[in-house]
Each structure stands twice: as structure tokens, then as C-alpha cells.
Design a protein that fits this description.
By secondary structure, the protein is α+β, with helices and mostly antiparallel strands. Helices cover 36% and strands 22% of the residues.
């Protein structure tokens, strides 16, 4: 294990490593961890107990490394044992900031006050964007326990602090996207309230954001499953409205040609050809290893046919514009309120590198993600709600969503004709369905009928 910088105290690195690999948000549990070190630990608040942020670098057997953020409080043995991270010398112990409800408001207060906290290696910078003050100190504090890759805390009924555990160089897409959409008056995303970031030798990176908490929002995925168990037809018009919201969001994201980070870009057939070639290889790999399973009957031994279909779908006259997109859009990233739909969680897929999550793409990639989520809903309703949705529900839901979407998006962002739109959308859906096929075979074989049905439908799409 590597040494700790002298200004941070002698944290027990063995204990730190053991604690780290047990966290839900630690994304490399299956990799061999060979070294752990604290590369910086700036002091944010010296009052008792002191509040710091530890930037922890982990190195793997392959030589690659990752950096994680640990907001910590330093105390004696007075905090709960389950919150203990590691010893810190002189009878001090480092505890997880989120373990005690008294501590997260301190970080929120620092973000709201602005300013910075410096160390020998860099500094933490705080910013408050909202005109209104933060929630009061007496506001209820409740951590969200269901998150997989980050840590979030809700304050009262109007603010949520999201802490990005893995630190990557660059601006986090969530900060970028919310700031851009807020400034352009798009109201169907949470309001950005504040953020904090690190500037220094390890990396210039976003550490966390504070945003509006949608207290009355119903999770779009849960709402869909409940509706399928009750009145499936009642979902169709709200899904039409969701399509309109997504189309309006894409139009807003493409609305500033003077901002190089968000300006729409024309993409030629070369970019589509590269993408199709990569997808062609994925199909070949997945279908080469398909087991002889009756559940795979509709697609078994049809890998070459599917690759031919992919090449046919790619023969389109134009692919429209590339813009910034949500990059991880599905029903679980939406909230339904009395005021309509709100789209949330703009950080993209956390497992993908940050530059990839910030890359511009066809808006139809977002649409494909949401449609695949719609495809999953009927089976999930059967398994989780003992419901039997109508066999044609997915087709009708797709139609209503797409009608709302195509009526609201700026048409200049899409291919010129509806046939070309359908073909490009089919390519993006195919990519997701092939990924799902491989995932379900390895993790949830009882769900494999969903990607099988999706691939079967895509084999039947008419090509120009």
C-alpha cells in the first residue's frame, strides 16, 4: 500500500481498502486491487468534528487506476461503528459523512456559501446558482439507499445533494446539462441549485451537485408497472406527453449554435459506417456463443440474417444532426407529477468514460433507450405485479410515444423522411437489444424473451 501524504494524517490504508471494496458504488469489485493511497484530503470545515474530502486512488493488477471521493468526518469513537471507514492516528477515526444526519447539512451549507477550501495539492470550490437560500438547518435529512453508483441526500422537500463517488477529469454531464437547460428556460428538468468541484493535480472534476428535489414525482417505471396491473390504456396519453417532453428537451439542447459544447453538428455517413461496423462485430460475437435454448428459437442461427438487416437499415440518405443527449434515458429516469413529466439523472451511464458520456449523438439514441424500457414493462408487470397486459400494449405505447416525440422535436435534427427515421431508430434499438440479450443470458435467463422479441421485430423492419 502506498503512503499517505504527510498533511493528511496516517490513515490506515488496509482498513480503507477493505471498506472501499464493500461499497455498493465501488465499480470494480471483480478486479484485483493492488494499491490504495490518499492523494489529497483537503480540510473543508475545521469545527468539531472536522470535515474533509479524501481523494482515494486505487490501482489494479493491470496497472490502471481510479479515483474515488470520500467525504468524511474525523472523530473519536462516538459515531456508529457501521459508519467507520478507517483509523486516522491519535485515536481519531474517519467516518462516512452520510452516516450521521447531522453532517450532510455542513457540506450543503458550504456549497450555499460559495468560496473554496485549499490544500497542498489543489482546492475544492463551492458555488450556489440559485437566488433562493438553501433548506434550513432543521430540514429533515434522509439519504437515498437505493443508488448504485453515487450517494444522494435529500434535504426537506426541495433539495437533493448528489455526490459523485468516482472522480473523473472534466465537467460532469449532469452539471452541464442542467445548467444549460435551466438557462434556456426548459422547465421539465430539476432546477440546478449549486455544485462543488475539485481543481488540482489529480484532476479538475465535478464532485457533486445540488438540485431541486421533485417531492411529488412518481417514478416513471413504477408508474408504468402499476398502470399495467390496473388500467393499461390509461398509460397511453401520458406516454404521448412524455414523447413530447423528450422532443422538446432535444430541441432545447440543440438551440444554441454559438456554444461549441452544445451546438448541433452534422455527421456524415462515415460516422454511421463506423458505428454500424462496431455493432456488426457485437452481433457476430453474441450470436456465435448463443446456447441451443428453446427460448432463443425465434433468433437462433439468424446472426448473419441480422447482420444483413443491419447493413440494409444503414442505407439511408441522411442521419440528421448530432446533439448532446441524455445518454441513459429510460422510464426510471422520468418522474410524473401533476404538472407533467420531469426528466432526471443527466450524468449518463456511470460505467462509461466521461468523454463518451459527454459526446454528441443522434437524439434517436435517447428515444431507443426509452422504447426499450417500454418493451421491458409488460414482462416486469407480469413478474412483479402478477398482471397480464394486453398483447398489443407495447405496440400502441410505442406509437403514442413516437407521435408525441415527432410532433415536438425540431425536424431538422432528424433524418429527412419518416422511413429514414424509423431505420436509424431501428439501428439504435438493435444495439440495445443485442446488449440486453447478452446481459439476460448471463444474469436473468427468465427475462431473455424480451430482447428476443425485440430482435425478432427488428428483423422484420422494412428497409428502403
Amino acid at each position: 500500500m502506498s503512503a499517505t501524504p504527510p498533511d493528511t494524517g496516517e490513515i490506515d490504508l488496509e482498513e480503507l481498502a477493505e471498506w472501499l471494496v464493500e461499497r455498493r458504488w465501488f465499480g470494480s469489485k471483480t478486479r484485483e486491487l493492488t494499491q490504495v493511497g490518499v492523494i489529497d484530503m483537503p480540510l473543508l470545515d475545521p469545527s468539531t468534528p472536522p470535515l474533509r474530502i479524501a481523494l482515494v486512488e486505487v490501482t489494479f493488477g493491470t496497472g490502471s487506476h481510479e479515483i474515488y471521493q470520500l467525504p468524511i468526518v474525523i472523530d473519536g469513537d462516538s459515531l456508529p461503528q457501521e459508519a467507520r471507514i478507517a483509523s486516522l492516528g491519535d485515536d481519531a477515526v474517519a467516518y462516512d459523512l452520510l452516516a450521521e444526519r447531522r453532517d450532510p447539512p455542513r457540506l450543503l451549507k458550504m456549497i450555499a456559501a460559495g468560496g473554496q477550501a485549499a490544500s497542498a495539492e489543489g482546492r475544492v470550490v463551492f458555488a450556489w446558482a440559485d437566488a433562493d437560500p438553501p433548506p434550513p438547518p432543521e430540514a429533515e435529512v434522509r439519504p437515498i439507499s437505493s443508488e448504485q453508483s453515487n450517494s444522494s441526500v435529500v434535504f426537506g422537500e426541495n433539495a437533493i445533494l448528489k455526490i459523485y463517488r468516482r472522480v473523473e477529469a472534466g465537467v460532469n454531464p449532469e452539471l452541464e446539462m442542467l445548467r444549460f437547460l435551466n438557462l434556456r428556460g426548459f422547465r421539465q428538468v430539476p432546477k440546478l441549485l449549486g455544485w462543488y468541484e475539485y481543481e488540482g493535480r489529480p484532476a479538475d472534476a465535478t464532485l457533486g451537485v445540488v438540485q431541486e428535489f421533485i417531492a411529488d414525482g412518481r417514478d416513471g417505471w413504477v408508474w408504468t408497472l402499476d398502470g399495467l396491473a390496473g388500467d393499461p390504456d390509461s398509460l397511453l396519453e401520458p406516454l404521448h406527453a412524455l414523447g413530447a417532453t423528450v422532443g422538446e428537451m432535444h430541441t432545447a439542447l440543440a438551440s444554441d449554435p454559438t456554444d461549441p459544447v452544445f451546438a448541433p453538428e452534422e455527421r456524415g455517413h462515415e460516422s454511421l459506417a463506423l458505428y454500424v461496423a462496431s455493432l456488426d462485430e457485437q452481433i457476430e460475437r453474441v450470436f456465435l456463443d448463443l446456447p441451443d435454448d428453446e427460448r432463443l428459437g425465434p433468433i437462433l442461427h439468424r446472426g448473419e440474417e441480422l447482420r444483413d438487416q443491419l447493413r440494409g437499415l444503414a442505407r439511408i440518405g441522411g442521419i440528421g444532426m448530432a446533439i448532446r443527449v441524455h445518454a441513459d434515458l429510460h422510464l426510471g429516469q422520468t418522474l410524473l407529477t401533476d404538472r407533467g413529466w420531469t426528466i432526471i439523472d443527466f450524468e449518463g451511464e456511470p460505467a462509461r468514460p466521461l468523454p463518451e458520456r459527454r459526446a454528441k449523438n443522434s437524439p434517436l439514441r435517447d428515444v431507443a433507450g426509452l422504447l426499450r424500457s417500454v418493451a421491458y414493462a409488460p414482462l416486469a408487470a407480469r413478474l412483479q405485479r402478477s398482471a397480464t397486459p394486453p398483447a398489443d400494449w407495447e405496440a400502441r405505447a410505442r406509437e403514442r410515444f413516437l407521435d408525441g416525440y415527432l410532433d415536438s422535436i425540431d425536424p431538422s435534427l432528424l433524418p429527412a423522411t419518416r422511413r429514414e427515421v424509423d431505420q436509424l431508430l431501428a439501428i439504435y434499438e438493435l444495439e440495445k437489444a443485442v446488449y440486453e440479450l447478452n446481459y439476460e443470458l448471463n444474469n436473468r435467463p427468465d427475462w431473455v424473451e424480451i430482447p428476443v422479441a425485440g430482435i425478432t421485430r427488428l428483423l422484420e423492419v422494412e428497409v428502403a
